[in-house]
């Protein structure tokens, strides 16, 4: 059974600071996703990481993937209040019965950026 | 530009009622998923379907059933609603991995309250 662990689960940081959210997963996977969720809203796709060593950046967020360590990181640079949200990582795992895939999520990291 | 829709954003039901949550996607995706989201627990997979009339149990199927009579529609059924099924329900869809980079599309969510 695939397990996905995120830490920290809660993060309060000041504007302008840097921080990293970690996502560990328990079995081999080729795809890792990062999502953002604002209160009462659905999930917004941030990044899809498809291979070992993949790095993607969008604005103040940068995600990386190390498939050997089964670890992904979401790095926040010079945080601003607008980044306050809950961030989820999720990992694809194969459903062998149909050659299809399903997502398993971490519990999420609630980020609060304080002015 | 709506791709995955859910029948209700908010729903209030009474204990013991039969509840239907509907999800429709217009992207011709083969796979569809139902998740529930609870604070501190992240998103957990209830059921998924990889083809019409096919269904597979996810991690927490107890108390739920599903129906997929048409490719675009995936229904989640609470046979006899209970208070512990009060939650946010999210529907998602995607195409099989063999088609290239799979991308999951999420619906807006249904906030269900069972009194």
Short description:
The complex is a heterodimer of chains A (115) and B (115). Chain A has 115 residues and is an all-beta fold.
Describe this structure in words.
- The complex is a heterodimer of chains A (115) and B (115).
- With 115 residues, chain A is mainly beta.
- Chain A has one domain (4-114): Immunoglobulins (Immunoglobulin-like).
- Chain A is 0% helix and 59% strand.
- Chain A contains no helices and eleven strands.
- Chain A has strands at residues 4-7, 10-14, 19-25, 32-37, 43-49, 55-58, 61-66, 71-76, 85-95, 100-105, 109-114.
- In chain A, the strands form two sheets. In chain A, strands 2, 4, 5, 9, 10 and 11 form a six-stranded mixed sheet that branches. Chain A has a five-stranded antiparallel sheet with strand order 1-3-8-7-6, with no helix packed on it.
- Chain A is globular, with a radius of gyration of 14 Å.
- Chain B is mainly beta and 115 residues long.
- Chain B has a single domain (4-114), classed as Immunoglobulin-like.
- Chain B is 0% helix and 52% strand.
- Chain B has strands at residues 4-6, 10-13, 19-25, 31-38, 42-49, 56-57, 64-70, 73-78, 87-94, 105-106, 110-114.
- In chain B, the strands form two sheets. In chain B, strands 2, 4, 5, 6, 9, 10 and 11 form a seven-stranded mixed sheet that branches. A four-stranded antiparallel sheet of chain B has the order 1-3-8-7, with no helix packed on it.
- In chain B, strand 4 and strand 5 form a beta hairpin.
- In chain B, 37% of the residues are buried.
- Chain A binds chain B through residues 9, 31, 33, 40-43, 45, 48, 50, 88, 90, 92, 94-95, 97-108, and chain B through 30-31, 33, 35, 40-45, 48, 50-51, 54, 56, 58, 90, 92, 94, 96-98, 101-104, 106-109, 111.
């Amino acid at each position: 059974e695939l397990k996905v662990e995120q830490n920290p689960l809660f993060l309060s940081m000041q504007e302008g600071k840097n921080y990293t959210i970690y996502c560990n997963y328990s079995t081999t996977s080729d795809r890792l996703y990062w999502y953002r969720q604002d209160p009462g809203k659905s999930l917004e796709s941030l990044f899809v990481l498809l291979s070992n060593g993949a790095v993607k950046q969008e604005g103040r967020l940068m995600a990386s993937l190390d498939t050997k360590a089964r670890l992904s990181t979401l790095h926040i640079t010079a945080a601003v209040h607008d980044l306050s949200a809950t961030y989820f990582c999720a990992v694809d795992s194969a459903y062998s019965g149909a050659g299809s895939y399903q997502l398993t999520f971490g519990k999420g990291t609630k980020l609060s950026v304080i002015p | 530009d709506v791709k995955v829709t859910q029948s209700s954003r908010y729903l209030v039901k009474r204990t013991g009622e039969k509840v239907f949550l509907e999800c429709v996607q217009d992207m011709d995706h083969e796979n569809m998923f139902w998740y529930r989201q609870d604070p501190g627990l992240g998103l957990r997979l209830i059921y998924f379907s990889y083809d019409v009339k096919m269904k597979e149990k996810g991690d927490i199927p107890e108390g739920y059933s599903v129906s997929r009579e048409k490719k675009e529609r995936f229904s989640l059924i609470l046979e006899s609603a209970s208070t512990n099924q009060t939650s946010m329900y999210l529907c998602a869809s995607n195409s099989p991995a063999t088609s290239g980079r799979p991308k999951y599309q999420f619906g807006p969510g249904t906030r269900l309250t069972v009194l």
